[in-house]
Design goal:
8 strands; 60s Ribosomal Protein L30, Chain: A; 8-stranded antiparallel beta sheet; mainly beta; about 190 residues; minor groove of adenine-thymine-rich DNA binding; elongated
């Protein structure tokens, strides 16, 4: 409990004042000196001498020959997906990076893991799950069109019978319905 002798009321606190109605011990904010300025508004933006300089805009030339462009290639029923991609790359003399594919295939020729030469054919129909890899156009080769192209395409697909296959394409991949390949084009330097 608080004793009445410890409580000081406001009426007992004296504030001394002078004849000009200013209080002693109170500092008037207008008495502080201010630097002279032409306007009372605060400046905005980056302060002079700041190391936080404005950054220049970066302009990307869309007509540059090395710009990557996304494309979709639709491959019709009973066509070879690999042959269609090879023909596209050679006709346009560009390289592509295959990102994905959708659709179904009738059969696929896969490369054996143990040997780069031996291949085997898997007969379907199958649904494409994944199809990725580069098709690199070699513009320095002067021999046949097929030697102008290097590709390393990974494929995975599954059947309706709970079978799934994953491998490296070693030959033909025949489209069962319209196969749509998503890729990015680029030119070699």
């Amino acid at each position: 409990m608080v004793q009445p002798s410890n409580v000081t009321t406001l009426s007992s606190t004296l504030i001394s004042s002078s004849d000009d109605n200013t209080f002693d011990g109170v500092i008037d904010s207008s008495s502080h000196s201010k630097p002279p300025s032409s306007s009372s508004k605060r400046t905005r933006g980056r302060p002079a001498g700041s190391k936080n300089k404005q950054k220049l805009a970066i302009v990307i030339d869309q007509n540059h020959e090395h710009v990557q462009k996304p494309i979709l290639i639709q491959i019709p029923i009973n066509s070879d997906v690999i042959e269609t991609l090879t023909q596209f790359v050679c006709d346009h003399q560009i390289s592509i990076a295959v990102q994905s594919a959708s659709g179904s295939i009738l059969n696929a020729t896969l490369r054996d893991d143990q040997s780069e030469i031996s291949t085997f054919i898997v007969h379907g129909p199958f649904t494409l799950a994944s199809f990725t890899g580069p098709c690199i156009y070699n513009n320095y080769s002067t021999t046949s069109l097929s030697s102008n192209l290097d590709y390393f395409l990974n494929i995975s697909f599954c059947s309706n019978l709970d079978q799934s296959f994953v491998g490296v394409v070693g030959g033909k991949v025949i489209a069962g319905d319209d196969v749509v390949v998503t890729a990015t084009t680029f030119k070699n330097s």
